[in-house]
Specification:
This protein is mainly α. 54% of the residues lie in helices and 9% in strands. It has a two-stranded parallel ribbon.
Amino acid sequence: MFVVVAERFLSNVVKRYGLHSVSSSDGVGTWYPPQACRFLKLVHHLHSHYEKSIIERTMQYIKDRTESFDNYFPCKENKCKLNHI
């Protein structure tokens, strides 16, 4: 059951964004079985806890920097949809 759901989900993602590798960390991402990745010919890369920590720290740094940019240069337009950026 999960294999079919995972395969359909990943297939739709591939149709929309193209063929990319799938990454997960140890014990996470069990919602998509590796069989679905193999069937769709996707490369599955398993990250270690150390790599996951580095990735999460980097993403948090980017979020913090983006938030501080917004604090210093707020949008003055009403109901901004960020089209002007």
